[in-house]
Amino acid sequence: MADPMTAPAKPQIEPAKPQTAPARTLVLPGDPRPPDVHVDVRTQELQINMGPQHPSTHGVLRVAIWVDGEIVTRAEPDIGYLHRCAEKIGESVSCIQYVPYTDRYDYLAAMNNNLGYCLAVEKVAEIDVPEKAQYVRTVAVELNRIGSHLMAVGTYGLDLGAFTPFFYAFREREEILRLLEWICGARLTYNFIRIGGVMRDLPEGFAADTRKFLDLFETRLDEFNDLLTHNHIFVNRTANVGVISPDMAIAYGLTGPNLRGSGLRYDLRREQPYLLYDRFQFDIPVGTGIKGTVGDCWDRYWVRMLEMKESVRIVRQALDQMPATGEIMAKNVRHLAFKSKPGEGYLGIENPRGELGYYLISDGGANSYRSRIRAPSFCNLSILEAILPGTMLADAVAIIGSIDIVLGEVDR
Amino acid sequence: MDSLVPYLTNVWEWATGSAFTFSMILSILAVVAFISVWAMFAVWLERKASADFQVRLGPDRVGPFGLLQSLADGLKLAFKEDLIPRDSDKFLFAIAPAIAFCGAFAAFAALPFAPGITAVDINLGVFFIVAVTAIGVIGVLMAGWCSNNKWSLYGAMREAAQLISYEIPSALALMVPVLVAGTFNLKELVAFQCLPSDGVLDTEGAVYFSNHGWLAFYSPWTFVAFVIYYIASLAECKRAPFDLPEAESELVSGFHTEYSGMRFSFFFLEEYGMMFVVSAIAALAFLGGWQPLPWVSCNFGGVLGNLFFAGVFLAKVIFLVWVQIWVRWTLPRMRVDQVMVMGYKYLIPMSLFALLMMAAYIHWGVRYLPGLF
Fold it and tell me: Which of A46, A49, A397 is the closest to B249 by Cβ?
């Protein structure tokens, strides 16, 4: 019936562009040729698929990358391979039951995830947590932060082809896991911090062992610096690579070490003190561009190294100030039949990867009506699309590693 | 043995009517056996050494000190299914590992292990080895292209660029000892390094003072050449920090991503064979070959003497390979443009300069380090 004259024209395939030498659209940093130099050999753009089973995408991230030779022209992160309906589960199980689920989102910083959720519930339900429990939480959370950062810097070395620092980082992390296993019996998913307090008090001898570990750890951090941080090849690979300007960092909602790497002194432990962070002395390290530009990969890496030292300071102070005895559980929390007050609230904490926020709405039942997670890795990941184009393929690996994402948290 | 080999050779020639002698077959078998045993040992060494660097134990279950681990791994590889990807170029896919292996294999033929142990004594030994080791690139390029995998192609292109770039400085650096000794023959290079003070080498069983010493310490320029050769040889073996062709964190496994089983093990053999070849050349041309000490040489004959020399030579090679392993497990990987910059902007000019300076030194007769003699 359709008249060929009036039928909508078939979409025409765009004619191939003329093969005259085009001006280069991409200029590498350090390329001496001016950008309007014409190239004689025109190469075809190649789309390659990085992930979801690629060794350096830290899990199941897939990045579709278009490359011109070794240079990335476009990059699109594709996520969702690890989606586990985290937020829906938060509505269908009770608040108490949901705490172990939070372990599974950022599995490298499970203690911090427990804490974020419990603090949010406590805020909505208006529960006061005893002082002793707050100190115990601080110790656990900061030890967990060190472990998480060790994993981040260790795997970062792995991304850049340095295998050995990874094992050194793991040796230290193993000690932290031993300590955390001692207090809660688990090594990865702790479920130690509960709504209204903690599972149990620190075991006897824990403080002494932890202090011993912290002393050793500080010397071993220097060893790690000698091995990786100041290595000439490592600096060449990371300095001036993947520069994120402060404006850009804010525009993309970066938080955590990625934001501070760009030179912005913003840490929720200082800005909105939760737990007892206002009682501790600690610095907030920021990237200063020692080896290159402010906000490059090396700065983000270095901020993590410095943050580990600050965490050591915090743990020491918390152990010193901690009362010998005291309640570790709030009085008014009846765990078997916990029901929150009706209301809503948002609470963000400083996760090792940035601002981890839980937004909860309660209708007065055992389950929360809505539980929304603001995952730092998810927001940090969004900047990849903006900073990958123009870099080399090897730099793409360095940049993805420096953002330090955990896919369990990105996809939730 | 002395009567058996000529006899069998005669039988062989009578039976086949060819000049391809029986001793040649024996040599080939010996080389194949040696490469296999060496690769197993080198893999074990690499795993043990890396474990030492990484506060681990390494293999310790199979055999004493885990020595048989490589044998177990080799058996596993041999019994694996021979997988060929559906969309690959099957013919090229099948022959690529063999061609890659050819380079390292052929180089072994010309390597002297001791004054009396060498498969083929070639007058242009250095030249021959530099030439045949370049064959491996073709196999790798074929493997990357025919796998029909973008990562493989990337790895192959990187390898081609890297190997071709680094063959120039390594060959130029090798020209420095050749210039000094005035010969391309690897045996004569070693003989030059253990030449006695009076220049006459006739006393057997003697330990004597040699005024040339090892070529690495002969003059500052030979030392520079040694360092350049060693760095370039790391790149030729695709060892860290130049392991871009098989950069695991970037290119999955590089050009052998699609390979498995026996075909994969041939790439593996090639890599470890190349490690041996470049270390052996470094030992022969710069570190006195089979002479145990610099400036003090010895001249032993007979089977025992040859075995002693071969032991010293192997010890040097194993040490150099161990340094390669040490470097690999310490350093991060360089970026592809940095590798090219290092090759073309630093190593090639430096090796050319060292060659020129050495030529000038020889021309004007200044042969030794001032102050050392």
Answer: A397
